[in-house]
Amino acid sequence: MKNKPVSRGLLLALLPLLLLTGCWDSVELNRRAIVSGVAIDRGPTEAEKYRLSFQVIVAEEISGEKSRGIAPVALYTGTGRTMFEALADASRQTARFLSLGHVRVLVVSEELAREGIKDIMDVLERESDTRLTSLIFIAKGQPAHELMSTMTVFSKIPANDLVEKLDTTSKQFGYNFRMEVDDVIRGIQLRGGGPVINGVFTSGEREQADTNDNLKSIRPRTILRVSGLAAFKDDKMQGWLDGDAALGTVLLHNKIKEFPVVIKDKEGGYLSFNVYQSQVTLNTEASDPEHPVIIVKIRQQAAVKESANPLDLTSPEVLEGLSEQLTEETIKQIKTAIASAREFKSDYLGFGQVLQRKNPRGWKQVKDHWEDIFATCEVQFVADAVIRHTDMRSNSFQINK
């Protein structure tokens, strides 16, 4: 059987495709300016509502080849009525195309966060060059661009230093945890609630924070610090969570890996514990959705880290008593977190989600006035803490007199 000849019309249709091979909008790497971090501040006027500062990596200083001994990053700032206009304004200052595909950190000023971040999230989700896995922070009490212009000791790129600090504190002794752009977008859509976002600020002197002089002394003059959680209702920041309120919030979200707890014994001394395993589950008795009962179940395992007292830590009765104190401390932290959420009138703790899963029909009846129910609903606790070991020794040594 003979093959049918290809029609002339089909050949003419395929010919342009051969001429269009390759990426029509490609930009060579040496024409790109890699952005590692972005700071978003509130401008002074509506015409300059957004002030965007882009932390651009100077590749020659990072690689060591053709190094000129200058700063490893440069900061370019643009302003505009919208974020896209501010980006366009900043691009006029650079000799290369601003590439947003490698942004690791986004820092939003507290002033802008209190006005609302919905429009910012819309841009970040809509723009194809940005990543929804970028970490987001709220600048605590200072402009966001100052955080992007602080030289750091452990990383040449300040944005990378901030990422590493968050990873460290989330794995050891801290209540801060990874909060990505996608997490914030989902938190904003939480009915009656909102996201919680890590706070960051600089301590020390600002005069030389953006120069290498900040790193030449044993004590850096300015230090980037991760601290506090910004609590939101919808897309507007309501206030800061610190101490027990922040720790209890993260416990309810099951985002904490390990953390220290200090309790006071009956003789007035202090004991330190490392809670290395904590599991909190939320349930509800929601047969009456107007009066739900939230049930918080807590399971923890801990180790004694410090015991400067004569307690007999080999005694099961003593350990049981300490476990009960540990449980009471955890319940106190979670109660503080619930009180803060009620004060902010925002269910960022996810109680409404628990009710929605348990009783979908009942949730439809109360979702429009869930804020009122959340403020007064009963919360019950079922908690158990176990002290598994006392590390390298049992009882503390005592001085013989």
TrEMBL record:
InterPro entries: GerAC_N, Spore_GerAC-like, Spore_GerAC-like_C, Spore_GerAC_C_sf. This is Uncharacterized protein. The keyword GTP-binding does not apply. GO terms for cellular component: membrane. Residues 25-197 form the Spore germination protein N-terminal domain. Its main location: membrane. One of its GO terms (biological process) is spore germination. It is a lipid-anchor. Keywords: Germination, Lipoprotein, Membrane, Palmitate, Signal. Belongs to the GerABKC lipoprotein family. It is found in: Membrane. Residues 227-390 form the Spore germination GerAC-like C-terminal domain.
